[in-house]
Amino acid sequence: MILVIDGCKPEYLTEETAPNLFRLAEEKGFAKRVQCAMPSVTNVNHACILSGKWPEETMITGNYEYDPATGREGFIEERGYMKAETILERYRKWGGKTALLTVKGKVLGVYGAGADIGISAQTPEAKWLERYEIPSPPAIDSVEATRWVMEAAYRCILKDDPDLVYATTNDYVFHHFAPGAKEARAQIAAVDECIQKIAALNPERQIYITADHGMNRKSVIVNMPRLAARAGLDVYCLPPLKDRYVENHIYQEGGMLYVFLKDKSQAASFEEFARRSPYVEQVLTAQEAAAAYHLPVGQIGDYVLLAGKETAFGEVEGEVLHTESSRTHGSLYEREIPLLAIHPEKTQEHYQYHKDIAAHLIQFR
Fold it and tell me: What own/partner pairs with CB < 8 Å and gap ≥ 24 does 21-28 have?
């Protein structure tokens, strides 16, 4: 079983908040901190966790796409974008039964091709609710959604015992509550209780608990297209974090930005503008970003901008918004995540990134 706790920075998942998980990890595996892929957003990192590959091979670079040749843009929510084989597909080739359970429907939409059992809290199929005797799901922007998907995973394993189970939550709670808040603790408690039950069904089961990305508070949100326009620059800015879940980030705010120059002759001017901006921590050409973060160079614009720890790029009124209410991700500062392993395939030094889970399972099966 691979469980991805969406948006779980290490400070949420501790010995205090998840005593059962840490006890199991201490007795039968390990607990450590690893890194996710960049940008630190959902689609990119599910692709990596499921395949053991970097974005340069999965070809997933965000939650949103833009084609500068046609002007076409839209959310990435369905099959066809993922180019690397997933561990679900590999297990099916080996004759195994697979299950993917998620709160966010897009995870099943993009990555569900290899799942014999596919359950989404957002758009549940009646046949799975009936088979596993689970009630209709609650609103996905709630702690109850985590309890629901964890209980669904438990009942799926209890009844059908798939060879591989991939389950994931929603990061709504962590977008709104810091570590230590009762809501955040309740979400982790739901995971802790259910994984203990799942582990008890088969004491030899391999279980990995990780996150797709972390989460941090942001105090400044910057409308980079407007700042660029005032500087006389014609650009399209794509925030790879952008998705339909506006209840999580109402300004589509994230810590990384792909910049497409509509006028290539403005390259030097844009680079100077970006490097002088107090809101930009790193300015990389597409080639530099691809080399640094294993990204496909043809999909990330002409420049990649990275924000500081308390800054995000977003779609706000005006040019700059100062706020106390934004918690989000996408930058290097949300790259550190937890990894707890029970009966892992390899010893802990072999796991530096969450993608190493699938990489080792595929290699040694």
Answer: 21/191, 21/192, 21/195, 21/196, 21/209, 21/340, 22/340, 24/195, 24/196, 24/199, 24/207, 24/340, 24/342, 25/340, 25/341, 25/342, 28/342, 28/343
- Protein fold of 216-328: Gyrase A; domain 2 (3.30.1360)
Residue 285, classified by CB atoms within 10 Å of its CB into exposed (0-12), middle (13-18) or buried (19+), is: middle
- The model's pTM: 0.97
Q: How far apart are CA 35 and CA 338, in angstroms?
A: 8
Pick the CATH number of 2-214+335-364 from 3.40.720.10, 3.40.50.720, 3.90.640.10, 3.30.160.60: 3.40.720.10
Q: d(Cα 157, Cα 195) in Å, to the nearest integer?
A: 11
Domain coordinates of the chain in residue numbers?
2-214+335-364, 216-328
pLDDT in tens, the chain (365 residues): 999 999 999 999 999 999 999 999 999 999 999 999 999 999 999 999 999 999 999 999 999 999 999 999 999 999 999 999 999 999 999 999 999 999 999 999 999 999 999 999 999 999 999 999 999 999 998 889 999 999 999 999 999 999 999 999 999 999 999 999 999 999 999 999 999 999 999 999 999 999 999 999 999 999 999 999 999 999 999 999 999 988 888 999 999 999 999 999 999 999 999 999 999 999 999 999 999 999 999 999 999 999 999 999 999 999 999 999 999 999 999 999 999 999 999 999 999 999 999 999 988 55
100: CB partners within 8 A, 6+ apart: 88, 107, 108, 111, 112, 114, 115, 117, 118, 119, 166, 167
Burial-class residue 348 by CB neighbours within 10 Å (0-12, 13-18, 19+).
Answer: middle
